[in-house]
Design a protein that fits this description.
The relative contact order is 0.13. The strands form two sheets. The chain has a five-stranded antiparallel sheet with strand order 1-2-3-5-4. The chain has a two-stranded antiparallel sheet with strand order 6-7. The longest helix has 17 residues, at 217-233. The protein has helices at residues 8-17, 72-85, 118-121, 128-141, 188-200, 206-214, 217-233; strands at residues 19-25, 34-40, 49-57, 94-99, 102-108, 151-153, 159-161. Helix 4 (128-141) packs across helix 7 (217-233). By secondary structure, the protein is an alpha+beta fold.
Length: 251
């Protein structure tokens, strides 16, 4: 059985409970990021099953002046929870757990062509709705680092969003390469998804309570404000002309 054939709850269980073996550091990141193999038994299979995953330990996070120390892995998980609550499933399955280098986030590794990133498939009509959702997702999570290479397309053509460690800041931090839809109306179905997400962020709701354990209250309230503003606007906003609105480097 291939990893992309496993149901998401099974993938999450393996990522959370399986035995983790480090396969080495992944290049290019500013934080310590490891490719790992996570192995566990699955029902009705005689042999243990292994998944490749990306492990980002908290103690490997580089300090940032504008994000609290040790919170990047929590923001990775918060982004996954929001993606799932929207039912957009943009972020690969992600858990928080202990690993060889301590507590951190563990995310399913997506096999993709390194030459396939946003700038190369942005004009492919089959990706349009997925990229619109990703643009909205970045707006509400206040993603400060949506590079082209943080948009992956797997072998089945599905688009995934990765690297969400610098999200959910209470201050405006949005920097993204996805401005293609600026000024366009948000599709009614996507607006409906945003409205139902808003109801889930209240205290006492599972998502609302989970986010308040991962983020501080000011960040949660800023998230709600961005979400409500986008629902009222009903259009993709234009970039702020007075701020740097793309990450650097953009790829």
């Amino acid at each position: 059985m291939a990893s992309d054939e496993l149901p998401t709850p099974q993938v999450l269980r393996i990522l959370r409970d399986g035995e983790m073996q480090s396969l080495g550091l992944m290049p290019w990141g500013s934080n310590y990021t490891f490719l790992v193999q996570v192995t566990d038994c699955i029902k009705d299979e005689l042999e243990p099953f292994s998944l490749l995953a990306v492990y980002k330990p908290r103690r490997g996070e580089a300090p940032l002046w504008d994000f609290p120390t040790g919170t990047l892995c929590l923001r990775e998980f918060a982004a996954y929870l929001v993606s799932e609550a929207l039912r957009w499933h943009l972020v690969p399955p992600t858990v928080l757990r202990n690993g060889p280098h301590g507590f951190g986030s563990v995310q399913l590794f997506i096999e993709s062509d390194a030459d396939q990133h946003f700038f190369n498939f942005r004009d492919d009509a089959s990706c349009c709705e997925q990229l619109q959702r990703m643009a909205l997702f970045d707006l509400i999570t206040n993603n400060a680092d949506r590079k082209s290479g943080h948009c992956l397309r797997d072998k089945r053509g599905r688009v995934w969003a990765i690297d969400h460690g610098i999200t959910f800041n209470a201050d405006y931090k949005l920097r993204t390469v996805i401005w293609d839809f600026a000024g366009q109306p948000i599709q009614p179905a996507m607006l409906a998804d945003l409205r139902q997400l808003r109801a889930q962020v209240e205290p006492g709701q599972p998502l609302g309570d989970a986010l308040r354990k991962l983020l501080d209250e000011a960040e949660v309230q800023a998230f709600i404000k961005r979400l409500e503003g986008l629902i009222r606007l009903k259009h993709f906003p234009n970039p702020n002309r007075y701020d740097r609105h793309i990450p650097w480097p953009p790829v």
